[in-house]
Amino acid sequence: MPINRLERFAHNLDWNLLRTFVVVVEEGSITRAANRLLLQQPAVSMALKRLEQTVGHKLIDRRPGRFELTDAGERLHALCRDIFTSVVRLPEAMEPSGEEVSGHITIHTVSHALNPEWDKALASFFRQHPRVTAGVRVETTTDVIRSVERGIATLGISDGIIPAALDQMPFCIETYALYCGRGHRLFGVESVRVEELRGEPYVSFISDVLGGPHMGPVTAVRAIGSFGQQVRALAFNVEEVMRLVIANAGIGMLPVHLTGPARAAGDLWQLPPYGDLPQTETFRITNPGATLNPAERAFLAHVSDVPLWRHPTA
User: Fold this and answer.
1) Is residue 16 a contact partner of residue 48, using CB atoms and an 8 Å limit?
2) Most exposed among 60, 76, 101, 135, judged by the fewest C-beta atoms under 10 Å?
3) What sign for the dihedral angle of Cα 147, 149, 153, 159?
4) DSSP structure string for the chain
5) What local confidence, expressed as pLDDT, does residue 301 receive?
6) What's CA 294's distance to the chain center, in Å?
7) Burial (Cβ within 10 Å: 0-12, 13-18, ≥19) of residue 312
């Protein structure tokens, strides 16, 4: 395409269409994208159509029961992520650099991802760099990964399926077991068989969805044991899942190392399977294509050698 045509294309492009396209891809649905953007569904459909007309390619194959990016859509989505990352970093890129490291770092994490060595590294970093500020946000697995992809988060701490485009390092490994609350019919019963759990109401993490994008070992145990099909309650953090299990909203999988006090108090009772318990691995994830401020560069270098932490199983 000649230079003058490229310039004309960039001048005429409505950049809001790119943002709408990214949200449609992330949500996998015109309807969900419209809800997130606070727009009417026809407006989002028209925006997608205008973008396809502008770039001259069909971007999403939308047919009954089908919603997939075309090859052109895949390429544009990758470019849009880079564009969004650059825009997010503009204010920080304008900050003057001095001898003393300053700036803001953001950590997006799933709930209760614990590693004592990480805590020590944080403490030493903030001692060394008193002018650095930080923000920590607890999110779902999907949202943590999305925040890192978009360059919103300096670093993410997440389980699930980590995209190949992101850098990852092991953070911690947790062992999960299945529990019920005091009022459950199987509370206090020894040697329960897995077959007895079929049809039981289940309390699930939002990311722990059968057939979902981040199915892991915990979900696999549910599928193999044929329990947890009837999800009665959803929560995205450990505290709320445990609260719902104790309240007898349903049975649920919880990290073993966090259930000790509730088990000792007689609020939780372990159910099968009793052996070969599933283990989930949580990762530190970063975006290698992100533009970093001095504080972020210093922080990532400082925590780069934090070792994996294996939580005890009891």
Assistant:
1) no
2) 135
3) positive
4) --HHHHHHHHHH--HHHHHHHHHHHHHTSHHHHHHHHT--HHHHHHHHHHHHHHHTS--EEEETTEEEE-HHHHHHHHHHHHHHHHHHTHHHHTSPP-SS--EEEEEEE-TT---HHHHHHHHHHHHH-TTEEEEEEE--HHHHHHHHHTT--SEEEE-S---TTSEEEEEEEEEEEEEEETTSTTTT-SS--GGGGTT-EEEEETT--TT-TT--HHHHHHHHHT---EEEEEESSHHHHHHHHHTTS-BEEEEGGG-HHHHHTTSEEEES--SS--EEEEEEEE-TT----HHHHHHHHHTTTPPPEEPP--
5) 94
6) 25
7) exposed
Rounded-to-integer distance, Cα 45 and Cα 85, Å: 25
What is the length of the chain? 314
Q: What is the pTM of this model?
A: 0.66
pLDDT tens string 136-192: 999 888 899 999 998 889 999 998 889 999 999 999 999 999 999 999 999 999 999
